[in-house]
Request: fold
Amino acid sequence: MLPRVEIVAGRHAPGVHELIAEAAGAMASGTRLVPAQGGLGGALLLNDGRSGEHVAVIKPLEDDASNGDGGGYESEAVLREVAAFLLDHGGFASVSPTALIRISRPDMDTTTMASIQRFVAHSHDAGELGPSRFSATSVHRVGILDVRLLNIDRHAGNILVKNDTTGTDWAAPLELVPIDHGLCLPERLEDPYFEWLHWPQASMPFSAEELRYIASLDAPRDAELLREELPAITEPAIRILTLCTVFLQRAAAAGLCLADIGDMMTREFSSAEEGVSVSELEALCNKAVDDGDRRTEESSPRHVSFGELSAEEWAAFLEKFERLLPPAFEAKMKKL
Reply:
């Protein structure tokens, strides 16, 4: 009996139904899933039974996360894979079509929840090439997504180079495709890792189109989208999305480039005696929280979380936070 594939989240997103149809056809042909190299653990490749070409990457979801009990940040990684695609409005950053699916095998009486993402044909990852040939537009678009989602694991291996670099036009800018978003949307402010932070393209000004896109982002609407499509993603993670979207919008409007914004979000490592300092973003959040507010579980200024704030406290925090941004951006610009 053939396996049944049901879309749980992402059914209305572009490209998802076509992906599921191809995947169901591949499963019906009897093709076997094979472990994928690289990426987060447990990823499986689904190949076309006839051509042998890769169709999709499937990442099973642990049982405790699928039932909404909150199986922990790591167990919910595949939910964040889906969230990244749903939040990449209009395919701005080229996140490949991704959905949360339920695979049922009636003959074996088993059901598996998993994310499925269309496989991206690529020639290299960013770590295999120097950044000088990367399209500035692609770098900016990947970076804008990472800032919004506070990606704590954007390394060179999960940025794919889409173009065929074996061609004859070596002057053509190379386009990038981001993958592996299981470590985005943390539940508290973390120290992000942005591979692109010191690439020359990150220091270039945003284009008019990029600025329009950033200004058009609607943080409350995105928050509702995640609550409706992926209810297992926690409110603290959704508030991080809201915070980082507001920060990105205000920073871009103030004239900061991608590298400036990423730098303000990243902690600086000092001497062993001094330890790790908070980022400029964390410092702003600490200033916006009154003494006695429940900003962290450990009461540590290094780990800012908003999960325990009531709706009224959260709104008051955002208002204070936004008031602190103009002088902070002005100070940043003076340092440049």
